[in-house]
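User: Assemble these into one structure.

Assistant: Restating your components, then the assembled model:
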Amino acid sequence: MVPHWRRRLPLLLLSLLCPSFASAHSFENTAIVRTIDLGGSLVHVTTTYAVKALEDGAGVYTLALAERELKRTSWLEAKIKGQQNILAMESAGFDGESGVYLFSVELPETLRTNGTANLVVEAIETHATYPWPEEAGQKDGQSLKYETDLFVVSPYKTSVERIKIKSPSPNILSYSTPEGLDEFTMEIPVTKSGATITYGPFSNIPATADATFLKPKQKEVAVHYNYDHPVIEVTELKRSAEISHWGANLNIEDKIHLHNAGPKLKGHFSRLEHQASTFLGRMPPHVLPSLTLHLPPNIRSPYYYDLIGNVSTSHLRVGHLPAQQSSLLEVRPRYPLMGGWNYSFTLGWDSPLADYAGYDKSTGKYVIGVPLMTLVPGAVVGDAEVTIILPEGATDVDFFPPFTPIQSYVKTHVTYLDTVGRPAIILEYKDLTTKHAGTVYVMYKVPLSAHLKKPLAVATAFMGLFVLGFAVRRMDVRIQKK
Amino acid sequence: MPLAYSLPTDLSPATVVNASSLLRIVALALISGAAIASRLFAVINFESVIHEFDPWFNYRATRVLASEGFYEFWNWFDPTAWYPLGRVVGGTIYPGLMATSGVIYSILHGLNLPVDIRNICVMLAPGFSALTAWSTYMFTKEMKDESAGLLAAAFIGIVPGYISRSVAGSYDNEAIAIFLLMFTFFLWIKALKTGSAFFGTLAALFYFYMVAAWGGYAFITNMIPLHAFTLILMGRFSSRLYVAYSSWYAIGTLASMQVPFVGFQPVRTSEHMAALGVFGLLQIIAFAELVRAHVSSKQFQRLLYASVIGMGILGGLAIVGLTYKGWIAPWTGRFYSLWDTGYAKKYIPIIASVSEHQPTAWPSFFMDLQLLIFVFPAGVILCFRELRDEHVFVIIYAVVASYFAGVMVRLMLTLTPCVCVCAAVAFSSVLDTYINPVEPDAVEEEAETAGDGAVSASSTAVSTSSGSATKKGKKAAPAAQPGPLGGLVSTVSAVVSTKKGEKSRGIFGGDTRLAVLLNALGMLLFFVLHCTYVTSSAYSSPSVVLASTNPDGSQHIIDDFREAYYWLRQNTPETAVVMSWWDYGYQIAGMADRPTLVDNNTWNNTHIATVGKAMSSSEEVAYPILRKHDVDYVLVIFGGLLGYSGDDINKFLWMVRIAQGVWPDEIQEPNYFTAKGEYKVDDGASNTMKNSLMYKMSYYRFAELFGGNQAVDRVRGQQMPKIGPTLDYLDEAFTSENWIVRIYQVKKEDPLGRDLRTANAFEQGKRRKRSKPVARRRAIV
């Protein structure tokens, strides 16, 4: 816990001390291109800002997100175009009047007047689409609806702006044509070519992160499109990773609650129709018959069960390092997951500890990297709880999650023949996506005495039993001596 | 005395004693290991899962006990069972099994061993079977000696008759009850032998445990009094018997009344009166004995005896009178069905509908006991040789249990320990006789006639062993002239012909010994093979999961039950009431966690009959019943696609019979047969059958699956009509992969107030047929 506070504290202070450093006059957007890649539960939004500095020494650019955008966004990352480095980003407060949340991005170098930079901001939105119509029959297709604000919200003036919405299939059922945009464009505000809908270009847009603009002039657009894959949601993910030094083993167990967030099944499930569509190879898009997961390589003794026992319908192909970077697990739920249906299961495996852990001789500490989550492709993870259970007697525990959790704490976990229990690190997250699949690094010390604690305790207990038996056998408790 | 083979002479007696005691411990440990291991087929072939039906309830109750604590469990009212009645679980079960698992669970968790409660439940039966082997060893040791005890332990450890109820996962009362049965009997014998109130009390405590664990405790309640009574009749009354019986009965009965489900039954039902009567009789006799010790007059003695008998008769009459008055409950139906196997079918179809209540078929004796069933009578006869008090017990046990095992398949379980004990006594007698190196003094006897008889007897006894061994035995027979007496015959004839002198008994020569011993060993070996085979093939299927083989020989699991139950659990509201035939009630409650109308605790016949009526009536009749009971889903088991013969259509006649028992005017069994009296589901099925809800739900859209080809029901081997039944009041909600489980949702009433059939017809665009045009004309007055 301590490191996070320490890391966040100075920035927090900074933002408190200079609340007004998002000055509207330091930058101008010469062009904004926003590309929205529609998907099922995840929508990728990439916005490129061509930025021109209006004053010398401008080094902190301010991004703005409207309230709905912020709620949807689970991942936000800014880079300079063509560079790999991720720019530092901090929350810069909330503008109550316009209802806009501000984020400040530190540019790698300050710009002079008229100096330019290309800023690429990547965001992943979750729960942004919803099935429309809300119910679909078993044989029907699946279509989703996505609604968003038209203009990119920015505290700076923008010269040219264009918004592209890409649908995964060219089959777009409808899209809205905003009206009353004569102020910004003379042409038709929207064009469709193939699977892409382009709004704009719009020119000469004032600073949009402003109540005077947002309320009267911001438009809302909606796209209704076909989606050919099931919309999967992991409503709850509980991962526990248990480290065993004696067994040289890292056990990872995931408890997963799956939910098919596609249109609800209208009427009832007919096995007959399902078998017919399987037989013909025309599975309706909202049905999830099976799931392919990538697990780490070199895993052993995998298990897949749910609340009422083992599920026998799964196939595992174990990958071996270094040729294969992952093992492939094909999981079939007990029943095909129709729209609106749930399924919960537990998945676990053992892997050799050496693949994950190392020993740092200079500090005498062990370092272990635990993968944060198993990727369920295309799915958003609602609530995630990651528990990392260290060996009994581990001390000096430090941990470094790939990004800040909602909550994190250390508690004591008592399991097989433990005497004092093991430290367990618990990290809680919300709305995890593909981008979040990082590694939690944990450092800890285990003294030799802690290693020997368990065998000694068990040996002592048995010894006690034998001594007791020995004494009882030799005691004469008869009242009447023969 | 001449010796057949030499024995080492340089061993001190202490070494022999120590070595044999070590060997015994090792042997017992190995037997326990074998007993546990042979029960694990189900876990290895399938998984660690609770089997069948009743165990699911026990498992569910145990989970409540483990998670909520004992008092919560004790006061547990389960509103989801027997909807809408609910069930007071704490007061209507034998809590011994759950309490045992709960105790094991808390001990393990106290040691920081977080073993899942499911695994404890699954492994409880194998674990207790090891204890059963040990208690059988102790019991048999009292009968004969340690070697017989070890044999008996080995027998009971692997005999299929016991394994059938105690494989891993079959978490039922019998799992611990057989151990308790044998241990209580052992303690009783011990108490009787020593006349110790301590052992009598121990017997009472274990009797209490047994009462808390299994309804079959009535077997002990009647066996021990019967034994005591027989001993009295044989003139073997002693203070030992008095102490043992009185301490057992007084403490045992008081303790047993602490179990809520038993309550006051020990003093108020006929099943328990024998124990009470014998207790009274013993007091009277003891009193008479006391008086006789002080009085010498013959006349007074005669008077005393007359009064004793008079009091006995009076006591008996009092019991009869109380029964008629209603103070003592008369015998229950289950009891009558023990004497008249046709009784249940006539009066209580619900008992007769359970397959394990059927009379036993002959082959199952061989399947469950193999060679033991043949050796068993010999063991009983051997008990007559000494006829000590405990032998009387075994003889009574053998007679009573044999009868019961013949009446009900399920009671094979109580016969099995007795068979193992007797067979072990017989077998160890043979082995003793033939291993004993002492040769008798040569005495000329007319060996020819006896010899022939012996050979034929022994060859029948080893009919299961290989032919070569038998031949060897025959060849060896003439070689050793005077001693070809088969082990059995020698001992039996020794009993029968008491004329022979003690000295003439024994075996001559080493080859004779070898022949018989090898034979015996071969028999034992084949017994082991048979047990393993039967266990693995017949008794290790969880029945929740079905197994078949893929074309490439690998195992394919058919998991339809759990598929459907899990679907219910995950995708229906938690309060959705599921109606199914009572067989599946516990499984639905355990796996799907949904309220059920009826379940395997068949205490309310009318409620079950209601379900039977709903299943066997037409939709229009069934619909109000379903709505009145708030039924949301109806679940049927249908095996027609896969050929799973335990499905609801095959059980359907029982539903009809049970419903007929309550509504004889509305449901009649003959209506479900064709005119020729056949039970058919194809075109020729009777109309009542075709219109019944069960038929419709089973075959709904079944014919369409065959895509225009002839649809075939693979269980009944009948061709189905091309146009299947239609449903108006129910909707198909879920069908499992192999169509074994089909779930239907009950429609709500039509919002426009039409009946659902009309509403359906309207929706499908059918025009309503006008019934007769209404006459517009007014009647002229």
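Residues 369 and 441 of chain A are 4 Å apart (CA to CA).
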